[in-house]
Design a protein that fits this description.
The chain has 321 residues and is α/β, with parallel strands linked by helices. It has a single domain, classed as TIM Barrel, CATH 3.20.20.100. Helices cover 36% and strands 13% of the residues. It contains eleven helices and ten strands. The strands form two sheets. Strands 3-4-5-6-7-8-9-10 form an eight-stranded parallel β-sheet. Helix 2 packs across helix 3 (109-120). The longest helix is centred in the middle third of the chain and has 15 residues, at 137-151. The N and C termini lie far apart (47 Å).
Length: 321
């Protein structure tokens, strides 16, 4: 592994003009309200340790609840929101979580996450995942150099080809970076059902360490497409869009939780939607984004206690079909 280098501080990043206005990201994970009956109080400690899952290619374990950065972390570094994010990240790591997923095309998110990890001294505790999202080799090399600068690190734990973009060029580059010790794992992502078939084809052809795919109670198709192939090939799985970009919360605004929610320790709809995702045995971790400490605490609760039975999962799919 290459030795760590010194990088710019958060203040110098801001001075460099990286405080750009947030832009829409294609795989955005909306921040989730603590919707539903019996929501956990703000910053409530979660009951017990987080569920861990094994990465098939190495046997390393990671907590099943991670975090994304799209939307919630796309702020100015000198914004008042930065302090609130510091509190949210502190809740995340204090709760035993480690996995953060980001991308260079989430406007300021990389710079913000890098500054947060540096300021809190959390980089060594973080399983850091980012992406390659460019169209040619030269652009990919520039993007990776910029990602290192913004994230304030010389390596990541996982480097993914974003939405299979320029895969024939990006995959050999990712393999080269892995061989050089710049990343421990490499992977592939997509965020739409229409991307499942090409993602499966790439999984069979490339044999990545990880895949990332959309999966939720109202979009469960990955359970019939990507997830069985991941189990067959021994590929770790990250889940995006578990809240369907926040749309699910509008649907449950006036609904109470299922009668069996207490039996599995569920106290909010956010908690239930995330527990649905990690209850599939192929899933390694789910990566919702939030910038609020109370919501971060609630999301961590989904990674504790019993998982949903097959019947409970089927009931949710039928309810939200």
């Amino acid at each position: 592994m290459p030795s760590r280098r010194r990088f710019l501080s958060a203040a110098s990043l801001a001075a460099a003009g990286l405080a750009l206005a947030p832009i829409a990201a294609c795989s955005r994970e909306a921040a989730a309200p603590s919707a539903g009956a019996g929501a956990a109080p703000p910053h409530a400690a979660h009951p017990g340790p987080l569920i861990s899952r094994t990465i098939p290619s190495t046997g390393e374990t990671v907590p099943a609840i991670g975090a994304g950065t799209s939307g919630s972390y796309e702020i100015a570094l000198d914004s008042p929101d930065f302090a609130r994010l510091q509190d949210a990240v502190r809740v995340f790591f204090d709760g035993g979580a480690t996995l953060f997923d980001t991308s260079p095309n989430y406007s300021t998110a990389d710079a913000v996450l890098g500054a947060l990890l540096a300021a809190g001294g959390w980089r060594d505790r973080c399983f850091l995942a980012t992406k390659i999202a460019a169209d040619d080799r030269a652009a990919m090399e520039r993007q990776w150099a910029e990602s290192q600068r913004r994230l304030q690190t010389d390596h990541v734990e996982l480097l993914q080809v974003h939405n299979l973009r320029a895969l024939d060029i990006a995959w050999p580059y990712a393999q080269q970076l892995k061989a050089a010790g710049a990343t421990r794992y490499i992977g592939l992502t997509h965020y739409l059902e229409s991307g499942h078939a090409p993602l499966v084809a790439a999984m069979r052809a490339r044999r990545p360490d990880f895949v990332q795919v959309n999966y939720s109670v109202n979009a469960p198709q990955a359970a019939q497409t990507v997830l069985p192939v991941a189990q067959e090939l021994g590929i770790a799985v990250l889940i995006n869009r578990a809240f369907d970009d926040g749309k699910l919360f509008a649907r449950v605004q006036d609904l109470t939780l299922p009668g069996w929610a207490d039996d599995v320790g569920v106290t909010s709809w956010s908690h239930l939607f995330l527990k649905f995702a990690i209850s599939h045995p192929a899933v390694t971790a789910v990566i919702p984004a939030t910038g609020r400490p109370d919501r971060q605490a609630d999301q961590l609760r989904a990674g504790t206690g019993p998982l949903l039975s097959a019947a409970q999962q089927a009931e949710l799919v039928a309810q939200f079909a």
